[in-house]
Amino acid sequence: MFIEWNDDLTVGIEAIDDEHKVLILEFGKLYKLMREGHGHEYFDELLEFLETYINTYIEREEALQREIDYDGYLEHKELHDQFRNNVKRIILQHHGKEVTNEDLLSINTFLRKWLIDHILIEDMKIGEFIKVNGIVLKPEVDLEAELKAELEAQSEIEPEPEPEPEPEPEPESEPEPEPEPEPEPEPEPEPEPEPEPEVEPEEEPEEEEPDPEPQPF
Ligand SMILES: [Fe+2]
Q1: Which residues of the chain have pLDDT under 50?
Q2: What's the pLDDT at 3?
Q3: Residue 209, Cα to own-chain centre: how many angstroms?
Q4: How far does Cα 105 stand from its chain's mean position?
Q5: 142, 84 in Cβ contact below 8 A?
Q6: Could you tell me the distance, in angstroms and rounded to a whole number, from the CA of residue 22 to the centre of ligand 1?
Q7: How far is the CA of 126 from the centre of ligand 1 (A)?
Q8: Which residues lie closer than 8 Å to 46 by C-beta, 6 or more apart?
Q9: In the prediction, which pLDDT does 57 show?
């Protein structure tokens, strides 16, 4: 028998509906893989899921029942305990062993029975109890975040460091201006030549009278 999630299966409590959805999903996967001849390969993964299921989902459902003072809590917890013990026994029996067809048929029957007898009957009673008593549930708490915050507060784990902001790129430096060329020194003015002293013109000698031309001899 193949079971798929539909609204008729809702209990009306998000935490419990989520628990049922995930279990129905895993059961459907087992059913499909068995029909395709790959159930053996999935068996170990299914056992891992069931271990998480009994340690997380069922624990959460019981916490909710205590929170709302569910009047059928003790009887319900007894059914949970039986399921827990059966899962633990199956895990121990199959540790390191080869998976047989009988193992697959057996676990398929075990899960189908749990879905029909417990989820469709016993867990539905919790939803009815909430409706009849007009209980308003608190918004679901993020358990993982709550646990992490608690551990951080106890300094058991270091909070993840915030990423350092990337350094802003330095502005490209403007090229330094080339030094202005020093002004060439103005050429010193050449000294004006000292005026030559005025020389008084020599008195021209009085023209001597030329010698008389020699006389030919
Ligand atoms: Fe339950």
Answers
A1: 199, 205, 207-208, 210-212, 214-217
A2: 78
A3: 131
A4: 41
A5: no
A6: 14
A7: 8
A8: 26, 29, 30, 107
A9: 92
CA distance 137 to 14: 10
For residue 84, the one-letter residue type is R
Both tokens of 135, joined, read 């209980």
How many other C-beta atoms lie within 10 A of the C-beta of residue 58? 19
**pLDDT score at 137:** 84
- Chain centroid offset of residue 156 CA: 21
Residue pair 36/147 in contact by the 8 Å Cβ criterion: no
Residue 40 C-alpha to ligand 1 middle, in angstroms?
28
Q: How far is the CA of 5 from the centre of ligand 1 (A)?
A: 17
- Per-position DSSP letters for the chain, written without gaps between them: ------GGG--S-HHHHHHHHHHHHHHHHHHHHHHTT-HHHHHHHHHHHHHHIIIIIHHHHHHHHHHTT-TTHHHHHHHHHHHHHHHHHHHHHHTTPPP-HHHHHHHHHHHHHIIIIIIIIIHHHHHHHHHHTTPPPPPPP-HHHHHHHHHHHTTSSPPPPPPPPPPPPPPPPPPPPPPPPPPPPPPPPPPPPPPPPPPPPPPPPPPPPPPPPPPP-
